[in-house]
Amino acid sequence: MVQNPKNVPLLDINRSNQIHRDEFIEALTEVVDSGRFLFGPDVVALEEEVAKYSESDHAIGCASGSDALLLALMALGIGPGDEVIVPSFTFFASVSCITRLGATPIFADIRPDTFNIDVGHMESLITDRTRAVIPVHLFGQCAEIDRICQIAAEHDIPVIEDAAQAIGAAYHSRPAGSWGLVGCFSFYPTKNLGGMGDGGMMTSGDEEMADRLRLFAGHGMRPRYYHQVVGINSRLDTFQAAVLRVKLRHLGDAVEKRSAIAERYNGLLKDHQLVGEDQLTLPFVDPSAFHVWNQYSIRVAGGQRDAMRAHLAEQGVGSEIYYPVPMHQQECFQYLGVDGSSLPQTELAAAEILNLPIFPGLTDSEQERVVDSISSFYHQSARAAA
Predict the structure, then answer these.
(1) What dihedral angle (degrees, nearest 10) is formed by the CA atoms of 66, 14, 140, 43?
(2) CB contact at 8 A, 289 and 143
(3) Using CA atoms, how far apart are residues 94 and 311, in angstroms rounded to an integer?
(4) How far is CA 59 from CA 56, 184, 193, in A?
(5) How far is CA 28 from CA 82, 238, 245, in A?
(6) In this structure, is the dihedral angle defined by the CA atoms of residues 118, 120, 123 and 125, taken in order, positive or negative?
(7) What is the separation of C-alpha 33 from the centre of its chain, rounded to a whole number of angstroms?
(8) Exposed, middle or buried by CB within 10 Å (0-12, 13-18, 19+), for 57?
(9) How far, in Å, CA of 58 to CA of 202, rounded?
(10) Helices (H), 125-176
(11) pLDDT, tens digit, 9 for 90 and up, residues 103-152
(12) Domains along the chain?
């Protein structure tokens, strides 16, 4: 019998990258030899490949997923006096892009099962000052983007998809990034399609918007040294594009492995009788969604989440909390004066959620080690209560 490993990392990027090392070296060597470190052919090719993969007409590379969101709002002319609806249970970049432009984020609550934006609450927040909606496809699962786009269209409000964690995900078989006016992707190394540094991409089915995104990403300069708008400098470099093209070829296989790991977690946690109202809640998959499992997120009931995480750390098992402090509680956003009682599911998720190791190279024995460690936590808790 294979012994459980002593330590289990939350993520092992090197393990996933090592199997493609020769392909990376070949691709990077071609970039070095070409000398085209910006605007090289790999950048153009990656934009075409991501557009096709996401079933969008256009894709525009940029320096990060954060810049993708910022550029989308800049291209829309968002500014002071405007409101943008966004979930509070998300990463900082989903909100900072709004406040950087002087606009006001309006925080929507989330569904208790998928952790994605609550569409009914979102609709109730629309006012005559609403200029955009940013649904976040959290943890690799699409929000109810069909309903979101329908409601937004009824109010003539553009939808900006934050698909930073969800490349390859889909809703009703239509890919993330193809529903809204702009889809925003991140190639941060921890993402399913992760580079070897920062990088991002914007997709759009609107030719005029795609042109504006490209303009704003290049200092608003067209032609050279003639600036039509005040843009920013946000470029996807050729090294990153070359690496990402290699990884994009293997993304389908990586997603299949992540899905198998998630299914195995479900089975192991049930077999160990760890699922229940007073213990764990397993991740919920919307029947209309294709989940790509950037994260495997459980809920830990009874105020025991932090104690469980500490126990896992003692056992050498990695875990993480995404996200321990929702955006409306962040110090830098206190000036907004948000009443947390309007976001009950957001605050509950922040207190209960725990993310377990999931990456394509995670072994069966490592998964068993994770689940055994969770089981031992409950056994210790039961003994302490006896």
Answers:
(1) 50
(2) no
(3) 31
(4) 7, 10, 15
(5) 43, 9, 11
(6) negative
(7) 34
(8) middle
(9) 8
(10) 145-154
(11) 999 999 999 999 999 999 999 999 999 999 999 999 999 999 999 999 99
(12) 14-249 (3.40.640.10), 251-385 (3.90.1150.10)
Tell me: the pLDDT tens digits for 41-83? 999 999 999 999 999 999 999 999 999 999 999 999 999 999 9
- The answer to whether residue 4 scores a pLDDT higher than 60 is no
Beta strands in the chain (DSSP E): 58-62, 83-87, 104-108, 130-133, 160-162, 170-171, 174-175, 182-186, 200-204, 280-281, 289-290, 296-300, 353-356
Helix (H, G, I), strand (E, B) or coil at 346: helix
Q: Find out whether the peptide bond into 223 is cis, omega within 30 degrees of 0.
A: yes
Amino acid at residue number 1: M
Q: Say if residues 315 and 356 touch (Cβ distance below 8 Å).
A: no
Check residue 51 and give its pLDDT. Answer: 98
The three-point CA angle 234-240-244 to 5° equals: 120
Instruction: For residue 267, give the amino acid letter.
Output: G
Q: Which two tokens stand for residue 155?
A: 């109010």
289-346 tens-digit pLDDT: 999 999 999 999 999 999 999 999 999 999 999 999 999 999 999 999 999 999 999 9
**What SS3 string covers 8-50?**
ECCCCHHHHHHCCHHHHHHHHHHHHHHCCCCCCHHHHHHHHHH
- Of 190, 159, 160, the C-alpha closest to 9 is 190
pLDDT (tens digit per residue) in 77-95? 999 999 999 999 999 999 9
Helices and strands (DSSP H and E) totals, the chain: 13, 13
Task: Name the CA dihedral angle for 27, 29, 30, 34, rounded to a multiple of 10 degrees.
Answer: 140
- Total residues belonging to the chain: 386
Torsion of CA 169, 174, 177, 181, to 10 degrees: -160
What number of CA atoms fall less than 13 Å from residue 244's CA on the CB side?
34
CA distance 70 to 75: 9
151-208 pLDDT tens trace: 999 999 999 999 999 999 999 999 999 999 999 999 999 999 999 999 999 999 999 9
Question: pTM of the prediction?
Answer: 0.96
